[in-house]
Amino acid sequence: MALKYDYTRLLVRDFAACYRFYRDVVGLSPSFGTEDDNYAEFVTGATRISLFDAAEMAAAVGS
Predict the structure, then answer these.
(1) 39: β partners
(2) What domain range is 17 assigned to?
């Protein structure tokens, strides 16, 4: 069985700034979410990068 790496999730403190960085500086097109959300995905060929607000993740897992 061959492993396939296709997804990275980054927990970020300043979601809107990170969203703009990946969209405007890196040049990725968002496939889900906006800078006003707390979750977004960017497709980079065969892989995806997602951004998730770190405070939202902490609340979701209770820490």
Answers:
(1) 52
(2) 7-61
